[in-house]
Specification:
By secondary structure, this protein is α/β, with parallel strands linked by helices. Helices cover 53% and strands 13% of the residues. It has two domains: 2-135, Response regulator (Rossmann fold); 142-218, Arc Repressor Mutant, subunit A, CATH 1.10.10.10. The chain has a six-stranded parallel sheet with strand order 2-1-3-4-5-6, sandwiched between helices. The radius of gyration is 18 Å and the shape is elongated.
Length: 219
């Protein structure tokens, strides 16, 4: 896997590069600005990119905009975005776009190597990955949603893991249940949220959006 890393923090940038190389992944370039990042994407045509949300010159959303431009140049490029803080709007927008191969993690997650690598591989594999701390923060600030209030505690556990981007097998492993049980929970979630099989929208994405957007008014 060929990877480009973009972060203006030298220590974090090189630390992530060292971590990935230790896992036999090929870090083909590192960048400290949106311009050098996009130049590296053009030159190396990577299989994935890891990008900081806030980069020079204003340290607001330059990283996100650079990631979007990189995906315009290389459609479907897997991008894992790193942030020092919970930025709820971005996590919701990530799923609302209906596009896979995108992830959003807090920088502190990098130190938890297995979780960081799991998120990276999920994104490269075509899925999404949202930091579990972001999902938990959203849950504590949630506003009432009649459909969500009908869910059992276990169904909410399943939906939270869906929001992080886990597939059925991964959810089953984390909750110590069978995949069949997970499938039944998800089917019940869809029913309680009135997501009919005929819905055009992907029901899994729609369910997660309900879960995340239930926090939007107070985020």
């Amino acid at each position: 896997m060929r990877i480009v890393i973009a972060d203006d923090d030298f220590l974090l940038r090189e630390g992530v590069a060292m971590l990935l190389r230790a896992e036999s992944l090929d870090v083909v370039a590192t960048a400290d600005s949106p311009e050098t990042f996009l130049a590296a994407v053009d030159e190396h045509e990577p299989d994935a990119a890891i990008v900081d949300v806030r980069m020079p010159p204003t340290h607001t959303d330059e990283g996100i905009r650079a990631a979007a431009e990189a995906r315009r140049r290389r459609p479907g490029l897997p991008v894992l975005v790193l942030s020092a803080h919970v930025e709820q709007a971005f996590a919701t927008e990530l799923l609302a776009g209906g596009s896979g191969r995108l992830g959003y993690l807090l920088k502190e997650r990098v130190g938890r190597v297995e979780q960081f690598l799991d998120a990276l591989h999920r994104v490269v594999g075509g899925g999404t990955a949202i930091d579990p701390d972001v999902v938990a923060r959203m849950l504590t600030r949630s506003r009432p949603d009649p459909g969500l209030e009908r869910l059992t505690a276990r169904e909410r556990d399943v939906l939270a893991l869906m929001a992080e981007g886990h597939g059925n097998a991964s959810i089953a492993e984390r909750l110590f249940v069978t995949e069949g049980a997970v499938h039944k929970h998800i089917r019940s979630i869809f029913a309680k949220l009135d997501l009919a099989p005929a819905d055009r929208a992907d029901r899994r994405v729609a369910a997660v959006l309900r879960y995340l957007q239930s926090t939007g008014a107070r985020g």
